[in-house]
Amino acid sequence: MSARITMPTEEQLPPGPLRELISGLHRLHVDAGAPSSRQVSAAIEKDDDARGKPSHETVSAILRRPGQVPRWENVQSIVRTLASWSHRRPDVDAEVSRFHPLWQAADLAAGAPEGQAGMSWQVDPADYSRPLPKAMAAQAEPHSFVALLEQMDNEGQDRLLPPLAAALWKPPGSASYCIEVMDEFRSAGRSKPAHAVLVAGALSYQFQELAAQLRALGRPEADQVDETAHRYMPLPYVWEHIWTLAPRTGRLGEPNLARPLFKKMTAHRELSEIVIFVASDTFRKEPSFADRRPLPPGFEVEPLADTFLIAIATTYGEEQLLELTDHMRETGLSAETSQMWRHIAEQRVPLAPVLRALRDSERTWEITAVLRRLMPQILLPGRDGPAKRAARLSAVLDELPKAGLFEETETLLQLLADYCRSQEQVGNAYRTLLTPYRL
Question: Is the whole-model pTM more than 0.90?
Answer without folding.
Answer: no
